[in-house]
Each structure stands twice: as C-alpha cells, then as structure tokens.
Amino acid sequence: MLKEERKKLGLLCLLLFLMLCLLAFMMVRTVQEVRNFQQQNKAVKAKDVSTIRSWMTVPVVSHVYEVPEDYLYRELNVHNTSATRHATLNVLANTTHRPVDQVIKTLQRAIIHYRQAPPSFQPTLPLLNGYQYGYQYLPPTSLYYRREKGDE
Amino acid sequence: VNIFFLDALQQYGYPALWLIVFLAAAGLPISGSLLLFASGAFAALGDFNLFILFPVALSAAVMGDNLTYFIGRRVGISLVSWLERQKRFRFVTPQALEKGRVYFRRSAAWAIFITRFLVVALGGPINLVAGLEFYPYYRFLVWDISGQILSVILSLGLGYIFAQSWEEVASVFGAASTLVLALLIVVALSIMLVRRLRQKKPQEMAAQSSSEGVDTPLDDGERAVEKRVFSGTLLSVSSCSVSSSVPEKDGAAMASEGGVYAQNCKKSSGTIPENLPMKTSKPTILILTTHTGGGHLNLAQSLKNLLEPCYTVAIVDPQSPLVERWYAFVSRRWLGFLTWQYAFTNHAPVAFCYQFSLTLLSYGRLRKLIARVQPQLIVTTHAMLSYAIARANAHQRHPVPLVFQLTDLGELHRTWFAEKHADAYLAPTREIFAQTIAQGIDCRRVHLTGRPVRAQFLDIDIDVELSSDARSRTLTAIGFDPVILTIFLQGGAKGSAGVERTIDSLLNIGVSVQIILAVGNNAQLAAAYANVRQVHPLPFTDTIAPYMAAADLIIGKAGASFITEAIMVEKPFLVTAFIPGQETANLRFIEQHNLGWICLEPLVLQELLLKIVHHPALLAEKIEAIQAYKIWNKQVNQDVRVVIDQLLSEKRGQ
Question: Which chain A residue is nearest to residue B204, measuring alpha carbons?
C-alpha cells in the first residue's frame, strides 16, 4: 500500500516538475510575445510599411498609410472593382498568380515612392468613393508610374 | 487555414463570420477567437460595424455551444457506457470516469464560464460533457452567455483597439491564456501534493505505532484543531458550515468585532455533513451569515438565542472560506480598500451589479443548502447574502418567508436594497427603520425590532452584577483592585482595533487604571501583556458579560454588536477605532444617543479619562441615557418572535 502510495507521489512530483517547466516556457514565450507586440505597435504608429500584412485589403492599406486607393490598384496592375475591394492581398496574389510577398513588396515600394514625392492631387467635394480623404486621384505622371520590371 | 478564413471573412462579411464562429464554438478545430480579433481590427479599419459584429459573433458562439451541448445530451449516455465497457484504454476505468463526472458536477459552472474565453480549446469538450451530464440547460445557458459576452467583448475590443497589430495581440492573449492555465494546473498539483504529503505522515505514523502497539499521539496542531471544533455540531456542506446548535462561544471574541468566535468556527470544507438539524415538530429556521468580522455572526447567534425556545435554528455561513480570509487580510493590512469598496458599492446600480455577481458565485451553493436544510423560514444577517438568497429562494418550488435582519446602527448600506421584496425587514434602530422605508420598501414589511443580543446579555441580572459585591468578586478573582478605575478593552483578534496604541495611552495617563483586555485567541497579544500588572489578558470565556459589567468603561472599535452589548451591561462606550465607511455612522449614533465618547487620538483619550477620574458624574450622565436605550431595545426585541410567528402562520395559512 505504501509502495503504491509512493509511486503515486512520485508521479505527482514528476507531473508538477513538467508543469513547472511548461510554466517557465510559457512565461518566456509570453514575454517574447509582449516584446514582439510592442515592436509591432511602435512600427504601426510610425506607419512603417513593413507592417503590411497579407490579410489587408487595398482599401485598408490605403486607409492606414494614407495613400490613394487608385494609385495602389494601378501599382498592382489590378482594376478597382467591388470584388477586388474586398479581396485581401492574399486573394489578389492568387488571382494575379503572384507570390503574396511580391504583392506586399510592390505596395511597400509604392507607398515609399508616394511619400518621397506625392503626385499632384486635387481636392474634391463631395467625396467620390469615401476613402480618399478629400483628394481625387489625377492621371499619373511618368515619374511615379513607371512600372518596374520585377513587378510584372 | 487562418488565411483562408480571413479571406472568407473579407469577401463574404457577416454571414461568413457567423458560420466560422459557429463552427469553432461547435468544437471544430478553428480558432474562433482569432477571427474575432481580426473582425475587430477590420471594424477599426472601416470594413465592419462593431455593433453588428457583437450580436453576430455572440449568437454564433452561443448557438455553436448549444449544438455541442445537445449532441452531448443525445449521444452522451451511449458514449459513456461504451467507454465503461471498452478494454483498449486501460486508464479510462469506470471509477476514473465517475470521479471525473463528480468533479465536473462540482465545478461545472466555472468550467463552462472560463472555457469561453480563457482555455477556449476545451470549450467544445466541456459543452459535450455538460450535455452528457444533463447539466441543467438554463444554467448552462446563463454561464455560456456570460462567458461568451466576455469573450466577444475581449476579442473584438482588443482587435478594434490594436487594429493593425491584432495578430500580435492575439498571440499575446493566447500565450497569456496558456500561462494562466499552466499556473492553475501547477497550483492544483501543488495542493494535491501537499495534501498527499500530509496524509502520508499520519499514515506512516499509524503504521509505525500499530506495529509498536501504542496509541498514535496527536501532534500539537491536530490537538488545537480538535479543541477548536466544539462539541460536535459545526458542520460543513462542501464549503458551507452548518451549525445547528452553535454553543455560546467566547464572549470577548463575540463582543469584539475581532471575532475570535469567527476564527473558531473554522469551516472544514470537503467533509460530508452529518448533523444537519433533525426534523422535529418545531419549524426550522435557517440563519445565513458570514465570518467577515464577528458582528454578523454575533447577530445570528443573538437571533438564535431569541428564537431557539420555539424553533430549530441552524446558523450557516454559505460563503467560501476564501471570503473570510480575504476580509481578515484587508481589514488588517488594506483598510483603505475596504473603505473604498464600501463607498463604491454604496450606490444603487453598483450595489445591484455587485449583488448580481455575488449571486452568480453562490447561487448553486444556496440552492443546495436550502434543499438540505429545508427550512420553513430564512433569515440573513449579511447584506452580501441578501440578494443571492432571495434569488435562490424565489426559484424554489415552494419559496419560504425571507427575513432580512438589518445590521447597522446608523446608516444602511445600499446592497441591502438590491432586493426589495423580502417578507420582513427587521430594523435595529429608528434611524435604520426610517432609511428602509425611505428606500421604498413596503412599510408593512419593515419592523422596528431593535438589535438582538446574545442570551448571556439578556439573562444577566444587571442589578446583581453591578452590585459592589459581584463587581469586587469578579475583579478580585483576576487580581484587580475594585477601587481603581477599570476598563474593559476589546483586543481585536483580527488586529483591526489598534489596541497596543490605546493600552500605551491608558497606562501613561498619570492616574492608576486597570485594564481587562479581551484577547480571544490572539496568543501574541495575550503574551505581550501577560506580565503587565495593570493589564489582565482575558482569553476565551463563555461568559464575558460579568467582566464587561465589572468594568467602569468599555473601550473598543465601533462595531455595532459590541456597542449594543455595552449598552446591555449599562456601560458607556468609548470608541478608539473604527472602520471608515461601514462604522462611520456608528460614531454618529453613539453621540446622538449619548451612549459614550469618540476618542480617536491618544491625547484626547488621556484627557477624557482624566476628566472621568476626577468627575465621576460624567459616567453617571451617560449611564442614564444608556439605561433608557437599553429598556427600549429590550422591549422591541420581543417583536422579533412576533414577526417570525406571524410570517410562519401566514405561510401555513396559504
């Protein structure tokens, strides 16, 4: 009886030890996740283009990085339709047969270019599509819409 | 997989969300909460409306949970019987299954609630088991909806707030959930280990002693516990302690809000109840109280003494022992929190929410308790139990009359009025009577019955006790000089009375005084003053009233019970400490009725005592007012039984 009891006690100790290990591991993981979140949040606040994710849609990217939607569609070589407006970058990449990373890179580059020297925009009232923060996109100039070979 | 669902979410909107969350809740291995984080983020970025998302997500989650619950209900029995018959998995024995089922029944509500938002992966299996166990559907629904509301608000809210970083937030949340789960398991395992080690020790000793042929001696701790469980009727129903005839306990402790008595009524959770009130010809009255301070228990005991000749009375503390420990901790070390809590919950809407959440915690326990005791009438002496017991009683097939014995002297806390339809409200003072009616309680249900006191204070022949002979006898017996000013000082077993400071002031007053210090079971306090000539540490005694009667003045914390007992022995009460908030109005009460003095500062205390020593007329003036109050209180106390009789006869008439 006592032997059986000791066996159970040993098993309990082992289980406790394993759970303590798991606890320590989870503590480390939680701290890492928190740090990761802090970094990401910092980048988001700085509107860093590295925070573009495959779950975003073009209107979301346009909204977050304050870049005209049509400009982004043009950069992606995609028509601005109802279907594409609700398509995530992942879906857009699938439909245009491109890797999703490439789609993200194209957008990142476009946003950086736009920030460096934005093309001319004219204010318009009322808003035509509700997403453009009071600006309507004008036809592109050759400087900003020269497609790069790698994007094709 | 998640990318696929996110794409679906963006392309098909709310219907897709509903379907995904429904499937996740139904137990499919999909992370529903991740989708909710994403939906919250999409709402922040303009793609969804948060106010539509909430009902969509909630309804989907609840429907999914219901589906698995009903599946469990349908196929559960055959599944269990198969598991019991099968031989493949040796560890799934019928005994283990039964143990698991018993454990689930015990903590099903918490399991359902927590798995909605914390350990979401276990949600599906828990729903199945709940169905399998035929866990009451409406209770399942209540806990499920409560948990899911919290879950949906958390997920959508965090997603919405941290829109672009929702993935990282979800990861943090997931990691933190697992961490909490691991922590809970570690705590549970540690408790199991400690219990096993404790069990092992006596077993080994027993084995050793039986082999040697001698009796196993109890260790000091066990002896102490054995001593504390008094003559046999303190029971426990899971975590409820039931006392069908709690004997008169140490008066010092009872009188003192320090609650030595409360400390002695330790609950032995987990034991099987043995001595529930026997069915007699007398109707059974169930008095609910808590161990938070000595006052509520004291009041319950007083009511019991009053009703015992005609009824079988059971005093029960249905709260978890943790509540008592928590109260002891905050009253000792975190008084500010207690004050804040009192003020915060002293508003009707907050009081209602507070009572509602307390009801969620204790409802099941109270239902079980009522089913076991089967009382003909229920009385509660604690506001925190009032709403929960009203709900538990109302949901009985045959509700019994419910009586609220209001506790405070000067001001009533709003939590008493979360429930406004009790059958009777017993007001201890005129002030409380007026406040209760002002709260909109039907005046036919409010009765001015005074503050009941324990039998020893009613039975005491005050003329005899106050005679110089009796006084001399009592004081001489403890080595005191009857000629010197004697003070009865409440020790405060729970440490909230700040007694050391008061004793220092009293001993340095410049004239000779002697102090009867009621220490209860506070051994540390007793030891500290054991060798001080002017102080007599008074440990447990069943009859504290003669000691209080032998003193010239009673000093202590402004607890309602202690003040009332001082009135009963016709002694002025000097307040040196109080719990801000709950006892503030008691100070006003003492001053308004001329029952004593308030001296919160040592210098003021010294000054006043010097005055009393030089002008004994000051005491006489107070005693006159006290006697008038005592006569009134004793007189209206008789109405308690009248009210109870009336309620019971009305009930019988129905």
Answer: A2
CB–CB contact B182 A22 (8 Å): yes
Name the DSSP class of B48.
Answer: S
Q: Enumerate residues 6+ apart whose C-beta is below 8 A from B123.
A: B25, B27, B65, B115, B116
How far is the C-alpha of A88 from the C-alpha of B11, rounded, in Å? 8
Q: Tens of pLDDT along B460-493?
A: 766 666 666 777 888 888 888 888 888 898 876 5
β B312-317/B240-243 pair status:
antiparallel
What is the average per-residue pLDDT within A119-143?
41
Instruction: Report d(CA B489, CA B498) in Å as an integer.
Output: 11
Of A47, A85, A72, A92, the closest CA to residue A137 belongs to: A72
* Distance between CA atoms of residues A62 and A78, nearest Å: 14
Chain B residues touching residue A18 (CB < 8 angstroms): none
Cβ contacts of A12 on chain B, cutoff 8 Å:
189, 192-193, 196
Under an 8 A CB cutoff, do B179 and A87 touch?
A: no
pLDDT at B188: 85
Question: By three-state DSSP, how is residue B488 classified?
Answer: strand
pTM for the predicted model, two decimal places: 0.52
Q: Please give the backbone phi and psi of residue B70, each rounded to the nearest 5 degrees, phi first.
A: -75, -30
Establish how many alpha carbons lie within 13 A of residue B455's alpha carbon, considering only the half-sphere containing its beta carbon: 12
pLDDT of residue B279: 54
Residues 10-39 of B with CB under 8 A from A: 10-11, 13, 38
Residues of chain B under the 50 pLDDT cut: 209-274, 495-496
- Tokens 């509602």 belong to B356
At A131 the three-state DSSP class reads: coil
Answer for the pair B217, B252: CB distance below 8 angstroms, yes or no: no
A-chain residues within 8 Å CB-CB of B174?
33
Q: Measure A133 CA to nearest chain B CA, in Å.
A: 13
CB-based contact A13 B196, cutoff 8 Å: no
Query: Testing the interface with B: which of A33, A34, A54, A65 to mutate, by most B Cβ within 10 A?
Result: A33
What long-range pairs does B338-345 form, CB within 8 A, spacing at least 24?
B338/B579, B338/B581, B338/B582, B339/B579, B339/B580, B339/B581, B342/B413, B342/B580, B342/B581, B342/B582, B343/B581, B345/B413, B345/B414, B345/B415
| A138 has pLDDT over 70 | no
Chain A residues in contact with B196 (beta carbon < 8 A): 5, 8-9, 12
B264-to-B59, B248, B260, B294, B540 alpha-carbon distances in Å: 49, 12, 6, 11, 11
pLDDT of residue B447: 92
Whether B164 has its CB under 8 Å from any CB of chain A: the answer is yes
Q: What is the DSSP letter of B514?
A: E
Report pLDDT digits (tens) over A34-55: 998 888 888 888 888 888 888 8
